[in-house]
Amino acid sequence: MSNGSIEAASADEIAKEFKEHSVAEFFKKNMQMLGLTGKIKALTTIVHEYVTNSLDACEEAKILPDIEVQIKELGSEYYEVTVKDNGPGLTKETVGKALGQLLAGTKFHRMMQMRGQQGIGAAGCTMLSQITTGKASQVITGTGKGNPISLEITIDPKKNQPKIANLAEIKKNFKGTMIKAKFKGMKYVNSEQAPLEYLRRTAIANPHAQITLIEPNKKKIVFKRTLKDIPKQPLEIKPHPKGINVDELNTLAKYTTGRQVSSFLKSEFDRMGDKAISEIQKNVSFDLKKDPRQLTWEECEEIVKQFKKINFIAPRTDGLRPIGEERIRKSLNSIVQPEFLSVVTRRASVYSGGFPFQVEVGIAYGGNAGKGNNVVNDDGLVERKMEIMRFANRAPLLFDTGGCAITKAVQSIDWKRYGVRDFENAPITIFANLISVHIPYTSAGKQAISDEIEIMEELRLALMDSGRRAAQYIAGKKREQDKKMKKELFFKFIPEIAKALEEITKKGKGKIEKNLEHLVLEKLKLEEDEEEAQKISDEIKETSKDTGKKTKENSPNEDEGLMEEVVEEGEE
Amino acid sequence: MSNGSIEAASADEIAKEFKEHSVAEFFKKNMQMLGLTGKIKALTTIVHEYVTNSLDACEEAKILPDIEVQIKELGSEYYEVTVKDNGPGLTKETVGKALGQLLAGTKFHRMMQMRGQQGIGAAGCTMLSQITTGKASQVITGTGKGNPISLEITIDPKKNQPKIANLAEIKKNFKGTMIKAKFKGMKYVNSEQAPLEYLRRTAIANPHAQITLIEPNKKKIVFKRTLKDIPKQPLEIKPHPKGINVDELNTLAKYTTGRQVSSFLKSEFDRMGDKAISEIQKNVSFDLKKDPRQLTWEECEEIVKQFKKINFIAPRTDGLRPIGEERIRKSLNSIVQPEFLSVVTRRASVYSGGFPFQVEVGIAYGGNAGKGNNVVNDDGLVERKMEIMRFANRAPLLFDTGGCAITKAVQSIDWKRYGVRDFENAPITIFANLISVHIPYTSAGKQAISDEIEIMEELRLALMDSGRRAAQYIAGKKREQDKKMKKELFFKFIPEIAKALEEITKKGKGKIEKNLEHLVLEKLKLEEDEEEAQKISDEIKETSKDTGKKTKENSPNEDEGLMEEVVEEGEE
């Protein structure tokens, strides 16, 4: 490393500095992009990466997940994290790619709703362990066939390749995967962004999983399985013609086994049937019997233009697996215990790239909704603040709150219209789960969802729909409270005012007080309350117009009716 | 692509799905991580990537930048972006890496304050162009030696390798680089997050650059160079011993040319002299004459432990190039025209990883500070809202506001303590520039800075320091306004109240009014004002204590005194 030169550099001199770097080196220098910096955040992210891998593996293998997380304190800011699952296990060949190579894995290229999707997370943890402690991560994994294996794994960052050591068979009965890794520069606490809260929220969104946490102080916390049926497995799906771009079509065409463009389109795309094909044929300048490998960019453009015009049926929703209205209702009622709860599951939609997604929203009001801030108000009640619980494919999102589409959608709503005057300080918990075959995260750290237009729109519609239902309840409650508060306030000051007026006017205090009470009760209270009621009622009416279309309530997983004209039935 | 199976998958079956992917494929699927999604955002990011490359190249070659950006509308949501600079140019060998390969370039491995630092941005634009239009990006570049060359470039995403076509020499005199690329799915608007505002802010932070924008409607906007001296070039620096971790030390030791650990440490680290070496030797279990390539992880740990203990002099600041208090003051005064302006440049500090950084903050209050929201208030004045202008190494940050350390630092301040009661709606512009040899961005899109503890602390100290100075001004102004408003308010209602009291008390209205006026002027006004003044004064005193240490005002680029005990002088 030179000490730097202050001479002006020529193109040739600058050229000497050109170097190439591996993706592992890039993320090693930018651990913050993986959510692996910050003493508390890093520890939560580690737990998140291992646990989501376990849940995904169990789901794919149709196993009811039983996951144990143990965090041991080895020294100051020095911890060992062990995550053990009862999943399908890893083979000798796959363990290196799963834990010792970035951008390798099963998830990146599949159109399937999974928690992980990048093939970066767990390998990033392996790297973090080795750069903070110099130690390898230990793995024991058994697939049910043959003996389980144990091994130690690190990454060579310059090559982005796994290094496996001490590979051995062990003579025990074990099916599943156990990862044990050490990390320095961490801190285990009990806060809103810490492992315990992360696992609590994971349990809320995954009632079929049994999750155990053993804390550094040996305390064992078990989130019991409350539902014994394995959720239907998400399906790997084909891209929907809406939202596919020319480059993607062009790339798919080069690798297809179809002999004609028409059969290529039918086999590679969701909702593509004979009617659509003949509609396309009518409007493009070439014969769809053509070899797809011979398609030019311009011809692909013609096809995509037709994709945009045709009213295809909405994307398959049977590939997506929402948590479901009833399960969310049950979870929130049992954990948040609100006075009022409104849950909306929207139907599936699609965002650019042809990725289907779906939004589930719950608004819980009153009771224990919102988060307590340990401040006691004048009425002796603990003040509560609005809380947003964000999930992506059922995995909780705890960080980068401000940058997330869910937060932005919540903030974009004018909550006053729904009768919530001071939204930030209202006893409200907003639950939102976005599911998709590909969540557009803002960063490789998967902490926040990018604000794609279509996703924002669906989130807003769900929030407004849910908000409308809550508004009726809130408005009534608010009116009652206001009436009470106003009366109390005025009556509290009447004696003082009367006393002051007595001085000014030299009239008797008793008479003044009576007159004031009359004034308050008759004039202020009645008139203002009527006005207020009218205003809220007007606002609710106006908001209903706002959403643009009438959304059918309580209708998750229904296929019909998203597009106004369905010209094409897709085949299964 | 299969239609998905709902059979349970075994480890072997899952193993078949394991694949490896290139970093180009990863970002191609996750363009949002590069800031290259969203019609407006993508266009601004494209301009950002090309312009920062131009500014960096000019800076390194000691050239006063003259940059022309032209955006042409080719069709609906279809644009051509051309960026031409007068920089040092690219050679045949480097142009492919600079524009056609991700994670290649001069910036990633150098400890040097540059706008770009990843080797991803411009190559990401090449990829975006080809996947939205199918077209290559055109480049003309001349280095001053021989004829300029022209060529077309695309990326092979599967290999992350450049593909160059139509390479030719051209017989014109041209030194610099011109890139012309086409993009679909964009929208040129004139908003706070659009190219024009981006370039305006770039001009604020780079007064030595001449920047021209030709808008799609052919309108030409020139941000003139206001300062003709080239800013001192940032130096490539060595890592500071504070903040280096064991892994980094271990890696450096493996590649050093030093023969002994002692000479290795002295040549590879900033501020490392003989005194520090002998201090380390006293406290480690091995001889520093040892071959550095033979250092074990545990020995590296011993050394890093000593690094933490020794009070090294603060990192070299001559590698960092703040904009400077006077330049910021001039820029903000000319553009924001505030009533009051307070600018603070903190001294350099270091965050984990051994990266020096420095913070510059300006608070502009009143006048045209803040952003207008087109709402006219009761006094007939346009209401203004608080505005944050964020910069990293002089490049404006327009997106992911909520997730950025600068925003978080601003929000963490209790502005009431500085006399600003309703911060969000105050006429305030907060300017903040973070400079560093490595900005810890939250994502490869470089839109927001990660909230590293040390950076947050410095930002907070700068904001508080700057805020304290503004507070005096604001408090005085506030008191005056409050007095005026209160008086006006009370006097407005006195006739009405007097009338009401006349009814209640049956006394003469004239006398009541006089009594009320007396009451307002004497009791309310005087007492409350005194109380208020006392309160603000107390708060300011308390806040001063808050910052923990007395910061010297107006002292950018001074080396002395950051550490209490300096046991070691670094050598140049």
Describe it for me?
In chain A, the strands form three sheets. In chain A, strands 7-6-5-8-3-2-9-10 form an eight-stranded mixed β-sheet. In chain A, strands 11, 12, 13, 16, 17 and 18 form a six-stranded mixed β-sheet that branches. In chain A, strands 14-15 form a two-stranded antiparallel sheet. Chain A folds into four domains: 201 residues, Histidine kinase-like ATPase, C-terminal domain (Heat Shock Protein 90, 2-Layer Sandwich); 64 residues, Orthogonal Bundle (Helicase, Ruva Protein, domain 3), CATH 1.10.8; 142 residues, Ribosomal Protein S5, domain 2 (2-Layer Sandwich); 72 residues. Chain A is an alpha+beta fold and 572 residues long. Helices cover 38% and strands 19% of the residues of chain A. In chain A, a hairpin with a 5-residue loop joins β9 and β10. Chain A is built from 14 helices and 18 strands. Chain A is globular. In chain A, 50% of the residues are buried. The N terminus and C terminus of chain A are likely disordered. Chains A, B: It is an enzyme of class 5 (isomerase). Chains A, B: Pfam families: HATPase_c, Topo-VIb_trans. Chains A, B: Its EC number is 5.6.2.2.
